[in-house]
Write a structure and sequence with these properties.
The complex is a heterodimer. Helices cover 30% and strands 29% of the residues of chain A. Chain A is built from 5 helices and 6 strands; from the N terminus they run H-E-E-E-H-H-E-E-H-H-E. In chain A, the strands form 2 sheets. Chain A has a 3-stranded antiparallel sheet with strand order 1-2-3. In chain A, strands 4-5-6 form a 3-stranded mixed sheet. In chain A, strand 1 and strand 2 form a beta hairpin. In chain A, helix 3 packs across helix 4. The longest helix of chain A is centred in the middle third of the chain and has 23 residues. Chain B is of the alpha+beta class. Chain B has 2 domains: 35 residues, no CATH class; 94 residues, 2-Layer Sandwich (GMP Synthetase, Chain A, domain 3). In chain B, 33% of the residues lie in helices and 36% in strands. The chains are: A alpha+beta, B alpha+beta.
Chain lengths: 182, 144
């Protein structure tokens, strides 16, 4: 199976389990996927608090509050932290797809995403940036190729596509020396 | 003042047969969450995904924005229950987010609640960051 070196859309289609027996034009039949989360909140914004649960059960009743969002986290998550986790996970998959498409699947990727929430001129808060840092252990590629694929991987990550309309997305990728084992 | 939140993910091998893990986040609230392509694009199977995390972020952000609006109107909510459902079309991207909220808000009428919910949907920072999603819908219900 050849994985086209194109954004996640291409990877998703070519990687579908029926790909080997299904002509490319029919891959639009890949089903839609829905993911749900539920939140409860009690009280006003300054003193109230909430809890976040994932429908898959992967996490449940994570507490959050305004203080945990804009001041010290104090062990509590926030919308921006969850977006950082989403972006890092989305990007890691996209970069793995790009590298595999180039014939050099990664042995190991470390991805770090930092989402910044800032107060803008009118006093409201905006998500202004997401910074991606990737360290890749890949046999058979070089730094220059990695940087090119790292950029394509960001462009192909659905989350990057969404937020780059209003926020800055930066990507820094570093090739780590070939080593054996972790 | 800017606030940064960071997450760390590791991944092994290619997209289709490989797997990853959300190792840690700034707050320490989540960690050791496994992710892989199959769980993301087919059956969730108790594993989270970028789309589920986006749903969680959006539901949380919307809830805070709505509590803020209601509080400013003199009707801080007793309770808000919010759900966000993110629709991901592999090969295309995120095509829709459906927000739903049920609120217990003493002294508020339905029209005012609908208006506050609409304002929260338009103005919460995650909504603004995700404004390029083709469709973001909202269903708001006031509970007595």
């Amino acid at each position: 199976m050849t994985i086209a070196p194109q954004p996640l859309g291409g990877i998703a289609e070519s990687g579908h389990r029926h790909t080997d027996s299904v002509p490319a034009h029919s891959l639009v039949l890949v089903p839609r996927v829905q993911r749900e989360a539920n939140v409860t909140w009690e009280g006003n914004v300054a003193r109230g608090s909430g809890a976040i649960s994932a429908a898959t059960g992967a996490f449940d009743a994570l507490p959050f509050s305004l203080a945990s969002r804009v001041e010290k986290p104090d062990g509590k998550t926030s919308p921006e932290e969850l977006l950082a986790a989403a972006h890092a996970a989305c990007y890691a998959m996209s970069l793995a797809g790009e590298l595999a498409g180039a014939g050099t699947p990664p042995d190991h990727l470390d991805v770090n995403a930092t989402v910044t929430l800032d107060q803008v001129e009118d006093g409201s808060h905006r998500i202004v940036s997401s910074e991606l840092l990737a360290r890749a252990r890949v046999t058979g590629t070089d730094q220059e190729t990695l940087e090119r694929l790292a950029q394509s991987a960001s462009e192909g990550c659905p989350f990057t596509k969404l937020i780059e309309a209003s926020a800055t997305v930066t990507v820094t990728a570093t090739l780590e020396g070939d080593t054996h084992g972790d | 003042m800017a606030t940064d939140r960071t997450a760390e993910v590791t991944w092994h091998d290619d997209l289709m047969s490989g797997s990853g893990r959300i190792d840690s986040v700034t707050s320490g609230a989540i960690g050791g969450l496994d992710v892989d392509w199959r769980a993301r694009s087919e059956d969730g199977a108790a594993k989270t995904s970028p789309e589920e995390l986006i749903a969680a972020a959006h539901a949380a952000c919307f809830s805070m924005a709505l509590s803020n609006g209601l509080g400013q109107a003199g009707h801080a909510p007793e309770e808000l229950k919010t759900s966000a459902t993110v629709t991901f079309q592999p090969g295309e991207g995120i095509t829709k987010i459906a927000l739903g909220v049920a609120g217990k808000v003493p002294g508020m009428d339905d029209d005012a609640f609908q208006e506050a919910a609409k304002t929260a949907k338009e103005n919460c920072p995650v909504s603004k960051a995700l404004a390029s999603v083709p469709e973001i819908s909202l269903t708001a219900r006031l509970e007595s």
